[in-house]
Design a protein that fits this description.
Number of domains: 2
CATH class of the largest domain: Alpha Beta
CATH architecture of the largest domain: 3-Layer(aba) Sandwich
Distance between the termini: 30 Å
Bound molecules: FE2/S2 (inorganic) cluster
CATH superfamily of the largest domain: Glutaredoxin
Number of strands: 4
Structural class: alpha+beta
Strand content: 5-15%
Radius of gyration: 18 Å
Length: about 160
């Protein structure tokens, strides 16, 4: 496994916090996904070996919890909220605009690898719907026009950061 040194040291730090090693499986999956962008079969085997489990035990967690991805994602990860306030305020149109701009489908890596667009549940900023996360940046009131502006910046490799997290 080709993990960053920082991830490896966080993994070594996390495991002893659990009285039973296997209980560290979920935090390890989060750390690996944060590092690699997804959880590969290699990662599943690596975590299983690290925790003295069978790969099937780790695989079951990956398939049970919807937050784990089993495929790589694009360079930028666009997550559009689809919960009530955002849905009412046009979140589905926002998402469709991102997909159109990058000629991609939900969950796929766009041609050229710029982005992966996905729906997510409430991002806890319902008063400023529709809300979008791009990597770890929070973007508020993202209507279709704003989605086009953000897409243009991403295509140009320009920063999209609003300073909100
Ligand atoms: S409903 Fe979208 S942020 Fe809460």
């Amino acid at each position: 496994m080709n993990l960053k040194a920082e991830t490896l040291s966080r993994i070594d730090e996390v495991i002893p916090h659990y009285p039973v090693k296997r209980s560290a499986a979920l935090p390890l999956l989060h750390l690996v996904q944060e590092d690699q962008g997804y959880v590969s079969s290699e990662a599943i085997e690596w975590i299983a070996e690290k925790l003295g489990l069978q790969p099937i035990n780790v695989y079951e967690l990956v398939t049970f919890y919807p937050m784990f991805r089993q495929k790589p994602i694009g360079r930028r990860h666009i997550k559009v909220c689809r919960t009530l306030s955002c849905a009412i305020m046009g979140g589905y149109r926002t998402c469709a605009e991102f997909q159109k701009q990058f000629e991609t489908r939900l969950g796929d890596v766009s041609p050229g690898g710029d982005v992966t667009v996905e729906f997510v549940e409430c991002l806890a900023s319902c008063g400023t719907a529709p809300v979008v996360m791009i990597d770890d940046e929070l973007h508020e009131r993202v209507d279709a026009a704003r989605a086009r502006e953000l897409s243009d910046k991403i295509k140009a490799g320009a920063p999209t950061d609003t300073g909100r997290r």
